[in-house]
Amino acid sequence: MRRERIEADQAFFTERLAQRGGGRRRSLRRARALAPHLGVHLDGWCAHPERVVTVVGSKGKGTAATFASAALAGAGLRVGTLTSPGLRSNRERIRVDGLAVSRRDYEALVGEVAATLARVSDLLPDDGYISPSGLFTLSALRHFADGGCDAVVLEAGMGGASDEVSLVAPGVVVVTPILSEHIGVLGDTVAEIAAEKAGVISAATRDVVAAAQADPGAGLAVRLAARRHGCRVHRVVAGAGRPGPELAPGFGGLNARLGVVAALRLLQLAGRTEPEPTALEAALRSVSLPGRLSHHRHGDQDWIIDCATNPAAITTAIAHATATVGPPTSVLTFVPHHRDAEPLLAALHGQAVVRVPGGRSTGGPGGGAVMRLEAVDLDSLGPRVLAVGPVYFVGELLATLDIDCERSFRAARQ
What we know:
By secondary structure, this protein is α/β, with parallel strands linked by helices.
């Protein structure tokens, strides 16, 4: 079974592909102007920051967002979660109480967005295009309002101030580790990137829950942004606090803790009672994060799958696999044509590496990476397989192995 492809998905890419507004840049003004036509009342969300957690950073945002959502659900709230990207389907980007929007509801939602955009396009500011992630954000907010969500957790895409999640004022902001991966796009230094991501902090924000940053300039940029708005900063370090590494292995342990701390701060901000310890533990233990050092049984094989795309993450994945199921008999990976393979393969030195063949990008939506997973006989990889690579490779592999990605956690009332 392959990754689910829905024709309606293309509607979210039309403005970017058509280079609306000259293709100069994504336009938050245009997205804001579209919102009321979609029945999305941004002012209503901004008037209640105690209902909103926004997650920014370079790595681990999805883990933090999922654990924050699970913790809020453990307190009895109905929670909407926006994450990016999806693994087996873009439907997974929009969830209520951990469950991905159904295909029927998703197609109806995307259809309404596409029809509305076509109808009012000429009435909107023409200073750029509405990005695909922006249209997902507006669609998610509409779905969350229709679903009667008490709280929402919004994961930013690549940026912060430049991302459409900044159209909503969060009561709590989560900052996961910030790396140099977007140098030259969001800023010329890690500190500049951090400042851009911290741009989601607003006058409505009361708490910033931030990972200790490896780059001192990044940490300072986050603290300065918080100070400008009078926010409390809660610095979370690896290896201490809750939830423990048993709930999220590897680097995920830190990001899981960030999410839980953020959820508890939001509950306090809203004047709500913290979840009972047993309810919180049950919600957190129900979290399922395929592709984040996830374990799967396929026939006689033990698989560990991780979206590891840098040497440190790859090294962590190897150590985790070795400690839990034993040394990998094979490491399956895909290195896209545009990436420098040398440091990634150096981290895999001494392993039995099997590379998935591919080719140059087609330039289509989602990067259009050419990848031929079907060229690899998965059954020949031995009893213990570690798979590491970019998210679209992981998504295709999860679909091939038919791993369920529909539910990220289970709310107590379900």
